[in-house]
Task: inverse folding
């Protein structure tokens, strides 16, 4: 019966398999290709089972029925059936998940014989699958035909087919597809279909069937056919309603002559696009159907006509304007209409229609429209911006082509370029800088889809990831089966000859043995074993190490191949894996035999080579080659960066998500404690130094000696510098509060702003003013002490010298802090250029080195006019060359300067530099200068301290106490300067040597280390501040004490006594002039020194 059924279908021709003989195996068996699968053939023309001594013969009796003489043992996924049926007999690449290639071998239960057949799990299983009988009695897998059926325990939910007894879900009845048998579709009977014919079967007279439209009016009246009793399917065939191209879809044929057939009413609007049901190959049977089935309205032969979904993308234009054929292949084997893209309704198995690049840029919700293809549902949906003004009406009414509704932004070739009116027109990438014939939207750059010839190379340089020194692969000399894992030793050919890196040879067992394939071996340096880390491996080394279990806890990214894998490979040859659970693709070797193809199967059906796996690039197009990798971080904007770049302080993702995520984020001032301290230190520095400035200005002109005038002037400058530091701290704390958590994603807008540069100048200016003034003051005091004679009176010469010193300090400080802002010196101070977040080619802030690589990839090697060597361009030329890479219709691509002070969120002087930084000489020069200042300060006060020790023996007890107080103050001055500058210089050195990342310590240094002097200087250099604080706090207690005394003494006969006590206790002492306020050098001057008025007064008082 089964043979009769196939014969009546017209499928009974004998088919000869495609077979290629290649070479003889070690056992003497020939390795042959049978329809793309490797088989072992014995000398007597039999086939040998995989990894077994069993042999069998194959008798190709019919297209979908191959008779086997023997079942292979230990073949759970039926590799024996692979290649048995030629691709023309059925869809070979259908895959049910339970067989290797969509076919299974069945030892069929029959009363006549025990023949073994190979059958399709998708095309011919109608006859005896899922009929609650074990028709397959395979010894190792009995009842296989019943193990994967979707049969409900509730019989009311099932439907039993006639003749075959197959059980299907009742949901599949009346769906117009004939799930029982194509010609005995009693599951479609009594459904009142408007297409096809319901009748009693001619072959089975008691069974009511539904005859598909393809077999209506086909002039077949044979008694043994599956047609209708009394030939009612051939009645009224002269009442035609149309015509179409027709080709009988025989499963054993892939081509044939197309014929024109007439269509009758009940052949129209069938719900099946392919197979044995549809009567037309061009889709004309899908015209003028009910509105619920209509997908497109267009003119056919000048008449308005509806076309169903099944009439689209047939390869034969029906509409006069070919609107039904605006289709594209969005993934392997899935061809869909343009208007079904980006509609949130997947039409392809792998969502290829929803993963297109144009789906990333859709119009706003308020600009939705009803698409021309809508499957009978009038629903407004967003459309890609790329469809606007493209010359094809995509929305009903043609609103997408109405240029008055959109903003016109020039043209791309012959196509007008439109965007939404709310958006701004942007520039386009020029594939060739010499003309504008090839232009690409910026959103389509570096997306893995090649838009023009040089895009790939430019994107490779622009988006390259700094992977560091990672291992690579190389073949071992003299061996065709062994691969060497190089551990970044330049020029080293074979690591096994290196004493430093001893290598162990490991077998890479992922690839199968047998069938002429040898083991693949990999030499692994002992440094990787045991417990190697795969976080810094990429591509093929990553695959080898993970799949050999050399990286603990890291899964192998490779996936099993199926027969539907690698559809992009032209000539595919498969064999079975070592585990017998999957397929492995092989290729012919030039010298004979086969070797592994080394391919990775993507989810979308294509394959890529192993060097494309886990290599930080979306080579598959659906990211499936990067999904199971632990060596990267996927950005929110889609790209991949090394895992080591996550939370490293630098932006590597276009959207900044590598630094702005759940594990890490970024604020200007990182912690709450630092933020509180910044506010506190800033306010204290402003208040205290403001007081000092006021007191010094008041006393400056009252100075009675030149030394006092110079000292007060320098102390005023120190206070001004420390006041600037207070302003900086308050300002940076305020900016941090303003940005809050959004600073992480908006960091570059702040770093390139003028506000950041101004704060950097204020910080540097205040720091240098204070440091230079302290240095000069310390030297001056040491000189005065050494001279042993203070000057008397303020002369014009003193005024001139003081003014010269102050002007010098201010000028040098201003010069140091502002010179990085001069455009003339931008080649020495500019960190890079910022192009915003909308340009995927220029992300972050590329520095000069990155710009040079991009320009060389675009223009070719850049050479000097005077030599053949590569040249480093200045920023002016770089800006011009970058601008010429894009159109200039809307202002051009302009990069904003990432200046010297924008190197860190705190906007401070760039002290922490590396060898590659252009500011290296300047930054280290200033560090050296500041360190020299610290040494001079420490040396000067050490000398003053030495002099004070000499005077301690002759100063008396009161003098010795004052000397000790002075020594403590000198020790504090030196200690605070040490804590401020020495750790700072050490961090800069460690950063330069790349031992630590000093960039993360900028905020600590700018809020903790550097402000130390700004807070303590007024206390160390200004006794007036201490006196002011003491008087403010002591004045309250004095007032209370005075009140109590008055209350006790204000009694009769006590008024005079009270007045005398008040005059004595609160009389202001006058007459003592302090030569050097706040650092009374007369206290450490030897008592015998002439002119020491204070000591003479002390001696006279003692007398």
Result:
């Amino acid at each position: 019966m089964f043979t009769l059924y196939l014969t009546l279908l017209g499928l009974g021709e004998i088919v000869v398999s495609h077979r290629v003989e290649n070479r003889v195996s070690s056992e003497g068996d020939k390795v042959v290709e049978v329809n793309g699968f490797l088989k072992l053939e014995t000398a007597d023309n039999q086939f040998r089972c995989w990894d077994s001594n069993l042999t069998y013969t194959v008798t190709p009796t019919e297209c979908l029925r191959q008779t086997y003489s023997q079942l292979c043992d230990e073949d759970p996924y039926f590799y024996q059936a692979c290649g048995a049926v030629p691709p023309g007999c059925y869809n070979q690449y259908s895959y049910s998940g339970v067989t290797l290639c969509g076919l299974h071998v069945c030892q069929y239960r029959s009363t006549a014989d025990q023949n073994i057949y190979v059958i399709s799990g998708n095309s011919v299983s109608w006859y005896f699958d899922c009929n609650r009988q074990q028709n397959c009695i395979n010894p190792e897998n009995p009842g296989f035909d019943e193990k994967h059926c979707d049969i409900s325990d509730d019989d009311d939910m099932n439907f039993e087919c006639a003749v075959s007894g197959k059980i299907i879900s009742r949901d599949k009845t009346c769906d117009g597809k004939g799930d029982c048998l194509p010609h005995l579709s009693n599951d479609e009977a009594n459904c009142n279909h408007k297409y096809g014919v319901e009748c009693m079967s001619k072959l089975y007279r008691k069974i009511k069937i539904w005859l598909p439209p393809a077999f209506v009016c086909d002039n077949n009246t044979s008694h043994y056919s599956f047609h209708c009793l009394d030939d009612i399917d051939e009645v009224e065939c002269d009442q035609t309603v149309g015509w179409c191209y027709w080709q009988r879809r025989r499963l054993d044929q892939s081509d044939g002559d197309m014929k024109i057939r007439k269509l009758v009413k009940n052949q129209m609007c069938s719900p099946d696009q392919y197979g044995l049901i549809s009567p037309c190959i061009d889709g004309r049977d899908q015209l003028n159907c009910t509105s619920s089935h209509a997908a497109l309205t267009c003119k056919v032969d000048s008449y308005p006509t509806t076309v169903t979904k099944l009439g689209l993308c047939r390869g034969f234009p029906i509409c006069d304007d070919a609107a039904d054929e605006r289709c594209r292949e969005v993934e392997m084997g899935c061809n869909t209409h343009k208007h079904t893209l980006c509609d949130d309704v997947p039409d392809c198995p792998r969502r290829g229609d929803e993963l297109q690049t144009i789906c990333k840029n859709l119009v706003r919700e308020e600009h939705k429209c009803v698409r021309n293809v809508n499957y009978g549902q009038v629903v407004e949906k967003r459309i890609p911006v790329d469809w606007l003004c493209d010359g094809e009406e995509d929305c009903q009414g043609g609103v997408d082509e109405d240029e008055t509704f959109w903003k016109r932004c020039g043209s791309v070739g012959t196509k007008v370029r439109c965007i939404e009116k709310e958006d701004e027109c942007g520039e386009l990438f020029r594939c060739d800088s010499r003309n504008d014939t090839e232009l690409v939207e910026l959103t389509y750059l570096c997306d893995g889809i090649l838009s023009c010839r040089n895009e790939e190379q430019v994107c490779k340089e622009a988006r390259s990831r700094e992977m560091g020194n990672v291992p690579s692969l190389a073949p071992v000399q003299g061996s065709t089966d062994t691969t060497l894992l190089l551990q970044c030793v330049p020029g080293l050919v074979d690591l096994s000859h290196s004493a430093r890196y001893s290598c162990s040879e490991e077998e890479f067992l992922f690839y199968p043995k047998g069938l002429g394939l040898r083991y693949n071996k990999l030499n692994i340096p002992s440094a990787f074993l045991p417990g190697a880390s795969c976080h810094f491996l990429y591509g093929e080394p990553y695959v080898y190490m993970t799949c050999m279990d050399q990286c603990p806890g890291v899964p192998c990214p490779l996936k099993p191949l199926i027969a539907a894998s690698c559809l992009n490979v032209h000539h595919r040859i498969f064999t079975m894996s070592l585990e017998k659970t999957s397929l492995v693709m092989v290729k012919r070797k030039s010298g004979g035999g086969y070797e592994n193809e080394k391919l990775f199967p993507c989810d979308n059906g294509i394959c890529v080579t192993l060097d494309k796996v886990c290599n930080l690039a979306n080579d598959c197009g659906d990211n499936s080659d990067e999904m199971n990798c632990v060596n990267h971080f996927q950005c929110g904007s889609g790209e991949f960066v090394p895992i080591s770049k996550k939370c490293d302080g630098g932006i590597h993702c276009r959207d900044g998500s590598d630094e702005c995520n759940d594990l890490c984020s970024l604020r200007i001032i990182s912690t709450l404690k630092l933020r509180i301290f910044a506010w506190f230190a800033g306010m204290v520095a402003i208040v205290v130094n403001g007081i000092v400035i006021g007191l010094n200005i008041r006393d400056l002109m009252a100075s009675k000696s030149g030394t006092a005038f110079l000292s007060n002037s320098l102390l005023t400058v120190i206070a001004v510098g420390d006041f600037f530091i207070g302003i900086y701290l308050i300002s940076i704390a305020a900016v941090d509060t303003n940005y809050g958590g959004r600073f992480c994603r908006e960091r570059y807008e702040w770093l390139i702003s003028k506000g950041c540069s101004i704060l950097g100048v204020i910080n540097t200016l205040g720091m240098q003013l204070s440091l230079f003034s302290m240095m000069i003051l310390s030297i001056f005091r040491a000189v005065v002490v050494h001279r042993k004679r203070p000057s008397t009176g303020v002369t014009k010469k003193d005024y001139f010298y003081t003014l010269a010193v102050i002007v010098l300090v201010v000028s040098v400080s201003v010069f140091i802090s502002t010179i990085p802002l001069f455009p003339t010196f931008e080649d020495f101070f500019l960190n890079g250029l910022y192009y915003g977040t909308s340009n995927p080619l220029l992300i972050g802030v590329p520095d000069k080195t990155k710009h040079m690589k991009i320009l060389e990839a675009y223009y070719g090697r850049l050479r000097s006019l005077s030599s053949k060597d590569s040249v480093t361009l200045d920023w002016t030329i770089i800006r011009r060359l970058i601008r010429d890479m894009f159109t200039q219709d809307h202002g051009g691509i302009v990069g904003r300067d990432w200046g010297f002070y924008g190197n860190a969120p705190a906007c401070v002087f760039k002290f922490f530099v590396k060898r590659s930084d252009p500011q290296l000489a300047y930054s280290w020069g200033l560090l050296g200068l500041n360190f020299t200042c610290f040494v001079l300060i420490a040396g000067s006060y050490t000398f003053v301290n030495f002099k004070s020790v000499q005077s301690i023996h002759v100063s008396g007890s009161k003098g010795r106490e004052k000397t000790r107080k002075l020594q403590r103050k000198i020790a504090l001055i030196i200690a605070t300067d040490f804590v401020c500058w020495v750790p700072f210089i050490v961090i800069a050195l460690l950063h330069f040597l790349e031992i630590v990342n000093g960039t993360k310590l900028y905020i600590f240094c700018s809020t903790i280390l550097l402000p130390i002097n700004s807070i303590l200087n007024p206390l160390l250099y200004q006794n007036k501040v201490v006196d002011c604080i003491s008087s403010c706090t002591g004045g309250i207690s004095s007032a209370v004490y005075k009140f109590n005394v008055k209350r006790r003494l204000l009694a009769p006969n006590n008024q005079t006594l009270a007045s005398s006590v008040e005059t004595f206790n609160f009389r202001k002492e006058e007459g003592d002039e302090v030569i050097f306020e706040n650092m009374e050098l007369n206290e450490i001057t030897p008592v015998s020194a002439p002119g020491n008025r204070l000591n003479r007064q002390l001696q006279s008082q003692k007398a």
Remarks:
- The chain has 18 helices and 38 strands.
